[in-house]
């Protein structure tokens, strides 16, 4: 996409954000309770799906609840840190073209953070704490640090969208959950469209400033993809579902060939983007 194409896209996305703006605090009608007899997530999307590690329906339903909490917590914890990074950059010289859209981004992510957390506090014991990440977040040099921030956002959003786009039309799950997934999917389709073009531009700028870091960055982004997929497997959610050996379930599930195939599917779109944009020389491997 050339510069004028990008400007047109930015204007169109900002207009959509304005037109489709909603009040997150009044958008949902929160039921008194959400029944534990229902599947809070479709069983095909649980981390143990296809592995045979858990067969009992009651435990699987409990896992659908705790993995919903984990999924929503990942958004709350993940976007907190990324919003700090976006806030540091808005209205600084290198971001002049993006200010308008970044205002929408920050506003919308703030709303998402609220409704994901709200669900967890209303119907469960609240969100899970953030797991420690072994990956560094900066120190690659200014231009490359920008690539890190927006690549992380894009990967994070693509994982969410894989689930949101499916759970948002899933008749099996309770209405409130379907509505939350659908609302998030709706906003994120704009963020992803913006994010891809922005990451491309930031990557070109970084390559011009410090081309020798290009390979390091490819490795970093791929490591982040691996780390992100693994964050779906939370020992705490296995424990809360009543599984006696959470760490073992995590290890076995994560390494199962069926799950590796699933990881590839979740990451397929963002992997295609990174490869197509020349940011990756080879595809990511699950
Ligand atoms: Fe979001
Ligand atoms: Fe987003």
Indicate the topology.
Elements: H1 3-19, H2 24-27, H3 57-89, H4 99-123, H5 142-167, H6 175-209, H7 214-230, H8 235-240, H9 246-255, H10 257-276
Helix pairs in contact: 1-6, 3-4, 3-5, 4-6, 5-6, 5-7, 5-10
Bound molecules: fe (ii) ion (2 copies).
Description:
The protein is mostly helical. The protein has a single domain (3-18, 36-276), classed as Ribonucleotide Reductase, subunit A (Orthogonal Bundle), CATH 1.10.620. It is built from ten helices and no strands. Helix 5 (142-167) packs parallel to helix 7. The protein is globular, with a radius of gyration of 19 Å. The protein binds fe (ii) ion (2 copies). Residues 109, 157, 188, 191 line the site of one fe (ii) ion (FE2).
Write a short abstract of this structure:
With 286 residues, the chain is mainly α. Helices cover 67% and strands 0% of the residues. α4 (99-123) packs antiparallel against α6 (175-209).
Notable traits:
binds fe (ii) ion; 67% helix; Ribonucleotide Reductase, subunit A; mainly alpha; globular; single chain; 286 residues; 0% strand
């Amino acid at each position: 996409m050339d510069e004028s194409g990008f400007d047109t896209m930015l204007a169109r996305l900002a207009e959509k954000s304005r037109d489709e703006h909603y009040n997150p605090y009044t958008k949902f009608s929160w039921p008194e309770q959400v029944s534990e007899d229902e599947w809070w997530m479709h069983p095909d999307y649980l981390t143990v799906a296809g592995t045979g590690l858990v067969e009992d329906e009651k435990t699987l339903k409990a896992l659908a609840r705790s993995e919903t909490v984990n999924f929503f917590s990942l958004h709350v914890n993940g976007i907190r840190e990324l919003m700090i990074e976006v806030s540091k950059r808005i209205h600084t010289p290198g971001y002049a073209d993006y200010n308008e859209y970044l205002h929408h981004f920050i506003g919308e992510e703030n709303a998402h953070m609220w409704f994901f957390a709200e669900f967890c506090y209303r119907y469960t014991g609240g969100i899970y704490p953030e797991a420690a990440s072994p990956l560094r977040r900066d120190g690659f040099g200014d231009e490359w640090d920008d690539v890190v921030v927006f690549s992380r956002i894009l990967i994070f959003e693509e994982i969410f969208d894989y689930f949101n786009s499916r759970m948002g039309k899933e008749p099996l799950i309770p209405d409130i959950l379907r509505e939350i997934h659908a609302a998030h999917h709706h906003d994120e389709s704009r963020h992803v469209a913006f994010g891809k073009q922005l990451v491309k531009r930031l990557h070109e700028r970084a390559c011009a400033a410090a081309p020798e870091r290009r390979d390091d960055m490819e490795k970093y982004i791929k490591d982040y993809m691996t780390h992100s997929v693994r964050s779906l497997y939370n020992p705490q959610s296995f424990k809360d579902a009543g599984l006696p050996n959470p760490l073992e379930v995590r290890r076995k599930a994560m390494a199962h060939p069926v799950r590796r195939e699933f990881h590839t599917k979740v990451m397929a779109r963002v992997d295609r983007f990174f490869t197509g944009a020349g940011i990756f020389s080879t595809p990511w491997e699950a």
